[in-house]
Amino acid sequence: QLVESGGGSVQAGGSLRLSCAGSGYTYKSIYMGWFRQAPGKEREGVAAIHTRFDITYYADSVKGRFIISLGNAKNTLYLQMNSLKPEDTAIYYCAADGPGLVDEYKYWGQGTQVTVS
Q1: How does residue 8 score in pLDDT terms, banded at 50, 70 and 90?
Q2: Half-sphere exposure of 29 (CA within 13 A, CB side)
Q3: pLDDT tens track for 77-101
Q4: Contact (Cβ atoms closer than 8 angstroms) between residue 95 and residue 32
């Protein structure tokens, strides 16, 4: 089970931090990631991190603005979003156990809305 929190509304240029608490799966050597889906668009990978080796991947559209990280217990995932733009508006999903930024993860959260105006 994955539960996201931290979404909300913010003005352009602002920041938000998303959190995702995971349970019920093996998280010791997998990728965990953040995906987003804007209205009328396909879901896209935003950032991913390997829980054992800390390898990270970012979509080009968020590089330099977003930071993905893990909590000490490795089953909590964060996404620090800075310099937010209106085009970052989407539902953001946490995912666990999948291939980097490819949308083929085994476990998904319910999503949290991020709105940038």
Answers
A1: very high
A2: 0
A3: 999 999 999 999 999 999 999 999 9
A4: yes
